[in-house]
Amino acid sequence: MNSFCGVGRLKYDAELIQTDSGRVLSSLVEFPCGKYSTGIRVFRFLSADENPMQEDFKSGARVSVQGRIQSRSFTAKDGTKKYSVEINANEAFDSFEESTSESIEF
C-alpha cells in the first residue's frame, strides 16, 4: 500500500496552478527526519467546484498531510535527467497546538 501521513511546516505559501488537466494547489512542505528536515512537494488536484483556502496555507504554517507518494523523472532544460518525489494529498489539516484540529481543503 502506498500511503503517507506526516506533519511538517510549509516552506512557501501554497500556490494555485492552472494546468491543462485542471487546477492544482501546490506547496513545498518540510518534514522532520531525524536531526534533518526534508522538503517534499505536496500537491492536490482540485475539482471544478472546490475553492481552496489558500490563506490558511502560508509559509511557516504547520500542516498534517495524508496522501500517496509518487516519483517521476523528467529532462531538465539543460538536458540532464532529474528525479522528483512528491505527495499527492488526499487531505491536509491545520496542525494547531491544541488537540482539536479542523479539516480544511488543500
CATH homologous superfamily classification: Nucleic acid-binding proteins
How many runs of DSSP E, i.e. beta strands? 7
Helix content: under 10%
CATH topology category name = OB fold (Dihydrolipoamide Acetyltransferase, E2P)
What best-fitting shape do the alpha-carbon axes yield? globular
| Arrangement of strands in the largest sheet | 1-3-4-6-5
Content of β-strand:
over 45%
Q: H/E order of the elements?
A: EEEEEEE
Q: What's the architecture in CATH terms?
A: Beta Barrel
**Global mean pLDDT:** 76
The secondary structure category is mainly beta
The tally of structural domains comes to 1
Poorly predicted segments: 97-106
Any descriptors?
7 strands, globular, mainly beta, 106 residues, OB fold (Dihydrolipoamide Acetyltransferase, E2P), 61% strand, 5-stranded mixed β-barrel
If you had to describe this structure to a student in words, what would you say it looks like?
With 106 residues, this protein is an all-beta fold. It has a single domain (4-104), classed as Nucleic acid-binding proteins (OB fold (Dihydrolipoamide Acetyltransferase, E2P)), CATH 2.40.50.140. Helices cover 0% and strands 61% of the residues. Strands 1-3-4-6-5 form a 5-stranded mixed beta barrel. The radius of gyration is 14 Å and the shape is globular. The relative contact order is 0.26.
